[in-house]
Each structure stands twice: as structure tokens, then as C-alpha cells.
Amino acid sequence: MKRLRLVAVVCAVAACRGGLQEDTATNVRPMSGGTGVSYGDCAEALRRAAADPDLDVDSVPRPVTQRPRAFASMPSAVKTHINTKGSAVKVDVVVDTLGRADMKTFKVVQSSHPWLAENLRASIPGWRFRAARLAGCKVPRIFHFSATSKSRG
């Protein structure tokens, strides 16, 4: 009787294993966020990121550490300029799959004072980022940084 139970258990386990193997082929995660890339297809995700570094992704790059801090030692002339006229600075830089800014791609989009853009150019290389993700894969993507301040006058 014990032998019969053991055979039944072994057969049941074998049947389950066979079923699981068949199901895994059809158990595919859905496409990633409407991007048309199957989950886990890193080759395709990287190909698309290389073609368009500003593509739609599941998560955009974001700073994890910001050392040195941007605008930490602002000269008084810049503070005066900001207080009287306001300020705006926007820069773009590609963050690679390791979470580092590729400074060859650094681009000033807008800057109301040259010091603001130069401060970011000096600060961002020390920052570390969480890389963008597409279909579960890390991909290089543009990080858009912007800061604004209204005048106090």
C-alpha cells in the first residue's frame, strides 16, 4: 500500500512538472507600458534606446546621490541676479545603464545665468542615478534637469 502511494505521488509530481514546462512557454509577460517591447527583451530595449535616447520608458533615470550638491556655493552676484530677475536653468544629459551621467552628451537647454549651467556641468558628474528601465532592462536615457525661481522684487 505504501509503495502504491509513493508511485502515485511520484506520478503526480512528474505530471505537474510536465505541465509547468509546457505552461512556461506560453506564460509571457505583457508588453512593457505600451512601448511594444516584450518584458526581458533587453537587446530590443537597448536597440531602441540607442536609436532614441529620449524614448518612453517604464521608469526614467533619477538621482540617488547628489554629491556635490548643485548651487551649494552660489556667489552673491548670482543670488542678487536671482532675487531681482528670477532664474531658470534646464539641462539634459544621458544617464547610462550604470547610473552615471555621460558628460559628452551634456546640453544646456536654458539658463538665465551662465553660473547656473556651469555649476551643474561641474556637479552632475559626481551624481549617481538609478538607471532608466524599459521592459525590465536598464537602458541609457536622457535625464532632464530643471530648476526655476521667481524674483523676490
Explain what the structure shows.
With 153 residues, the chain is an alpha+beta fold. It has one domain. Helices cover 36% and strands 27% of the residues. The chain has helices at residues 2-26, 42-51, 76-85, 114-123, and strands at 62-65, 87-95, 101-111, 128-130, 132-134, 137-139, 141-149. Strands 3-2-7 form a 3-stranded antiparallel β-sheet. Strands 1-4 form a two-stranded antiparallel ribbon. Strand 2 (87-95) and strand 3 (101-111) form a beta hairpin. The chain starts with a helix and ends with a strand. Mean pLDDT is 83; it is low at 1-31.
Order of helices and strands: HHEHEEHEEEE
How much helix, percentage-wise, in residues? 25-40%
**Total tally of structural domains:** 1
Determine the mean pLDDT.
Answer: 83
Secondary structure class reads: alpha+beta
Major sheet: 3 strands, antiparallel
Global shape: elongated
* Regions with little confidence, pLDDT below 50 for 5+ residues: 1-31
Q: Give me the count of strands.
A: 7
